[in-house]
């Protein structure tokens, strides 16, 4: 149904109003078929079974996944009692289409759904163990020690694969022509999702002490830094065991118990204002707060394996602050172009090459660059911070009149605008001495750059003893152990556009799209993943499953919204957004039309 909006937006909206369950059943079945998720679960179940003897379960893991998916698509909570109610409302035809081989009309349906969900969780659970109670210290230690590291890693990979396949299934609901419009730009961000947990609970890394939550494999989250947090008690225990750690406890009011999810979101094509295709979530991963090592590369690999293009990869500082050999280099080797922000102390001069080059805020320049141009980024950031501090102070000022506040802000704004004008001029001057990347990074980490022979400083630079000769230069892999120097050879801080340039601001600004996804997923009128009470089944893994399916439902909503924007006959508003007559519809039957011409005008 999602593929035929050109012929039937009005029909689609009418069907949603008259028989919403039927619409949702068709969509859920279509996405699951395109994703191949059911086949994956059957395969994994066969791999895990020690014997084929015994009675087959009435509801399979695939049936459990289908039921959770349908529940989310219907905007209903994923409690077993509510899923049972949905089950009973389905017709025989609907249950057959979804592979739910039971009528749901007996007192055992609750147990059958619950057992199917447990079988589903077991296939992809990297945290196996007891969930029937809050564990004592001895019980928690026993559970952790009983886990097989290789088996847990394998099931974590299964969960990642399942999430990627489900998301890809929703994208494949778009026709090929629409999918091909994207240049492959993505932005990546992490967001926190809470689990049940009581104040003072031990970190999952701390085996000492009784647990205070039925979800002991979660972690403490804080907004600052890498987002990982520990209690003061945990910090003292960790520092005593290993003084080099230097853990700091996070106050009770500044930490929350739960998990983080990584979301990779399509962005518009670079500097292409009109939305020419739906901006969908294309990747997802899960981890304990602060433990994001390797997640960006994992998602990038998944995108490439699924046939996505490699282009701009836009992230925040939580990713770019990692070791260059764990993030920056692997992404470049795969053909992605880095776009990210810096910490304040990472601006300005970052690396030097003895052949006559200096790296300034992620880009390479001739080392004849004057100091004032080398420091321009730090200066403008200080000016912006000063202006923001003045705005905050004026807003809180209760002694000044409105006129006095306006005067103070006008003076501060004028100073900032003068600084911005100066910075634009300095950036333009500096760009004349910039080395331009040429081609992809080689497998031996070599990067080739074009030397700016047209730069006004080139003759002066070229005449210096020891400067590189030629129109191009290759930056080789630095010698020594990886990690000895945080930015060896400039590898950590290199990005496609120089920080602060108009090109960089345009690319980095596209990261706002992934933050809007996070907000949508947490809104109460939609999937509401922020409310742990709506997914009360214990353990990290059930939350992973619900969140993965929630992103799929959000993708489906984005597809409908995109088509609405393409087919609208008038300016849309909440009052008319659901009215079928607000949209153009082809008079050609869908079975006879290859491609609708679109709304007139």
Task: Spell out the key features of this protein.
about 600 residues; alpha+beta; 7-stranded mixed sheet
Distance N terminus to C terminus? 25 Å
Which shape, going by the Cα principal axes? Answer: globular
Structural class: alpha+beta
Q: Largest sheet, described in full?
A: 7 strands, mixed
What would you report as the Rg, rounded to the nearest angstrom? 28 Å
Helix content: 40-55%
Mean pLDDT across residues: 88
Q: What portion of the residues fall into strands of 2 or more residues?
A: 5-15%
The counted number of beta strands is 13
Total count of helical runs of at least 4 residues: 21
Low-confidence stretches: 590-601
Short structural summary:
The protein is α+β, with helices and mostly antiparallel strands and 601 residues long. The protein contains 21 helices and 13 strands.
Topology at a glance:
Blueprint: H1 5-18, H2 20-35, H3 37-48, H4 61-73, H5 80-89, H6 92-98, H7 109-124, H8 137-145, H9 149-171, H10 176-179, E1 186-194, E2 219-221, E3 228-229, H11 232-241, E4 256-266, E5 281-287, H12 295-305, E6 312-314, H13 317-320, H14 328-333, E7 337-339, E8 349-353, E9 357-360, E10 363-366, H15 371-374, H16 376-396, H17 402-431, E11 436-438, E12 447-450, H18 458-462, E13 472-475, H19 502-508, H20 512-522, H21 540-567
Parallel strand pairs: 1-6, 6-7
Antiparallel strand pairs: 1-4, 2-3, 2-4, 4-5, 8-9, 9-10, 11-12, 12-13
Helix pairs in contact: 1-2, 2-4, 2-9, 3-4, 4-7, 4-21, 5-7, 9-21, 16-17
């Amino acid at each position: 149904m999602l593929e035929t909006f050109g012929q039937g937006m009005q029909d689609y909206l009418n069907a949603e109003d008259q028989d919403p369950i039927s619409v949702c059943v068709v969509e859920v079945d279509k996405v699951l078929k395109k994703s191949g998720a059911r086949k994956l679960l059957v395969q994994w179940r066969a791999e895990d079974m020690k014997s084929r003897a015994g009675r087959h379960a009435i509801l399979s893991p695939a049936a459990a996944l289908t039921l959770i998916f349908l529940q989310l698509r219907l905007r209903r909570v994923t409690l077993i009692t509510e899923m049972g109610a949905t089950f009973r409302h389905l017709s025989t035809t609907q249950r057959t289409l979804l592979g739910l081989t039971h009528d749901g009309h007996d007192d055992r349906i609750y147990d059958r759904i619950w057992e199917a969900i447990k079988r589903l969780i077991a296939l992809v659970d990297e945290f196996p163990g007891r969930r029937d109670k809050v564990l004592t210290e001895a019980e928690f230690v026993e559970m952790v020690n009983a886990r097989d590291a290789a088996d847990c890693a394998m099931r974590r990979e299964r969960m990642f694969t399942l999430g990627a396949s489900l998301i890809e299934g929703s994208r494949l609901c778009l026709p090929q022509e629409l999918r091909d419009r994207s240049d492959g730009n993505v932005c990546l961000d992490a967001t926190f999702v809470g689990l049940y947990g009581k104040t003072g609970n031990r970190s999952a890394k701390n085996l000492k002490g009784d647990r205070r939550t039925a979800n002991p494999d979660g972690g403490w989250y804080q907004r600052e830094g890498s987002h990982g947090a520990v209690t003061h008690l945990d910090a003292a225990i960790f520092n005593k065991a290993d003084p080099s750690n230097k853990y700091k406890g996070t106050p009770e009011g500044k930490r929350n118990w739960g998990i983080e999810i990584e979301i990779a979101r399509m962005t518009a094509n670079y500097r292409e204002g009109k939305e020419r295709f739906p901006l969908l979530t294309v990747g997802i991963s899960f981890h304990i707060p602060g433990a994001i090592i390797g997640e960006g590369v994992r998602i990038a690999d998944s995108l490439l394996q699924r046939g996505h293009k490699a282009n701009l990869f836009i992230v925040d500082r939580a990713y770019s602050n990692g070791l260059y050999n764990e993030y920056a280099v692997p992404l470049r080797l795969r053909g992605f172009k880095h776009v990210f922000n810096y910490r304040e102390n990472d601006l300005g001069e970052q690396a030097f090459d003895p052949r006559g080059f200096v790296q300034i805020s992620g880009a390479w320049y001739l080392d004849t660059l004057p100091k004032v141009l080398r420091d321009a980024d730090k200066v403008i950031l200080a000016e912006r911070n000063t202006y923001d501090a003045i705005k905050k102070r004026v807003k809180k000022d209760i002694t000044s009149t409105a006129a006095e506040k306006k005067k103070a802000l006008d003076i501060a704004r004028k100073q900032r605008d003068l600084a911005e004008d100066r910075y634009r001029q300095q950036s333009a001057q500096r760009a004349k001495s910039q080395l331009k990347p040429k081609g992809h990074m080689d497998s031996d980490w070599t990067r080739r750059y074009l030397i700016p022979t047209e730069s006004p400083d080139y003759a002066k630079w070229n005449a210096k003893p020891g400067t590189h000769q030629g129109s191009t230069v290759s930056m080789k892999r630095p010698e020594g152990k990886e990690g000895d120097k945080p930015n060896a050879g400039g590898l950590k801080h290199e990005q496609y556009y120089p920080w602060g340039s108009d090109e960089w601001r345009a690319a980095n600004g596209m990261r706002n799209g992934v933050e809007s996804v996070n907000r949508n997923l947490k809104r109460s009128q939609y999937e509401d993943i922020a409310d742990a009470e709506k997914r009360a089944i214990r353990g990290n893994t059930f939350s992973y499953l619900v969140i993965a399916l929630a992103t799929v439902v959000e993708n489906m909503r984005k597809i409908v919204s995109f088509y609405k924007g393409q087919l609208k006959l008038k300016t849309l508003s909440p009052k008319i957004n659901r009215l079928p007559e607000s949209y153009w519809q082809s008079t050609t039957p869908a079975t006879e039309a290859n491609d609708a011409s679109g709304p007139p005008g």
